[in-house]
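Q: I have 137 residues here and want to know how they pack in 3D. Can you give me a structure?
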Amino acid sequence: MTSDALLVGRVLVPLDEIVVRVRPSGGPGGQHANRSATAVDVSWSVDDSLAGSASWRERIRSRAGSTIRASSSRYRSQWQNRRAALEVLATRIDDAARVETPRRATRPTRGSVERRQDAKLRRSQTKVARRRPQVDE
């Protein structure tokens, strides 16, 4: 993260496109936790953004929706929670933007086929050995 932009993979998302809201953090903690706005919620609208290419934004929109959100209330300081929330947001955007390589179908090797068939044969012989003996009349 730079001072005026969030680095997502190789794309810089300007911080003025990211909406940052602060709120009181929930849970125990006495007067300080109940009165201090230390929890941070961040959101980024893919539709309103000019960051990256159009295909990059479309890939994100199709996988994660038009708005991506993250929040943090882990730390006692608003500054640390802001940093943590922006890191989570960057990770979510990067995961949605990642181009997945298609899986190539492969055939099992001859050795793996032989090992599987040998294991099936051994298992079959074990089960045959457990059966009751046949009584011939």
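Q: Anything worth noting?
A: DSSP finds four helices and five strands in the chain. The mean pLDDT is 84.
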